Amino acid sequence: MKNSFLSVFILLFSLSLYAQESKKLTLEDIFQNDIFKINSVREFKWMNDGHYYTALAKNKKTSANDLLKYATTTGEVTDTLVHGARLIPAGTERAIVIEAYAFSSDESKLLITTGRASIYRRSSVETYYILDLKDNKTHCCRSWQ
Questions:
Q1: Helix/strand/coil (H, E, C) string of the chain?
Q2: How many other C-beta atoms lie within 10 A of the C-beta of residue 46?
Q3: CA proximity to 65, closest of 39, 89, 95, 32
Q4: I want to staple 62 with a disulfide (CB 3.0 to 4.6 A). Which of 1, 18, 85, 104 is the partner?
Q5: Number of CB atoms found within 10 A of residue 127's CB
Q6: What gap in Å lies between CA 125 and CA 93, rounded to an integer?
């Protein structure tokens, strides 16, 4: 009985030593390779048909927020509705940073909120743009700058 207990103890001890012989954790793994990143959607909005939803996601290449369309059954990206890096209004050189958005009732236009600045408690000022999804034209409707 003592021999079997000793052999089980040695086996478990050797397995624990083997499990600890893994790759060292580096700062690059944490901050650049995103090994601890949680795969979740921050905020999403349902599409009218109920088969899709949309959410903002940071594009790793351009570091802009893209508006992606996901299938509800698989959770896979089916389309990129808005490329954040391409949202450059007429007369400007910089792209709009999408902070929030809302669809029109027929989902042909998008109200984009950007440049939010808090004033006092729950009050804030924002800049609003309307994006026509059919022709990709952006119109500024309210700017506080």
A1: CHHHHHHHHHHHHHHHHHHCCCCCCCHHHHHCCCCCCCCCCCCEEECCCCCEEEEEEECCCCCCEEEEEEECCCCCEEEEEECHHHCCCCCCCCCCCCCEEEECCCCCEEEEEEEEEEEECCEEEEEEEEEECCCCEEEEEECCC
A2: 12
A3: 95
A4: 85
A5: 20
A6: 22
pTM of the model: 0.66
Question: pLDDT averaged over consecutive 10-residue blocks of the chain (145 residues)?
Answer: 64 58 77 76 85 90 89 92 85 84 93 87 87 87 67
Burial of 83 (0-12, 13-18, 19+ CB in 10 A): middle
CA dist., res. 79 & res. 23, Å (int): 37
Torsion sign across C-alpha atoms 114, 84, 72, 50: positive
In this structure, the number of other CB atoms found within 10 A of the CB of residue 143 comes to 13
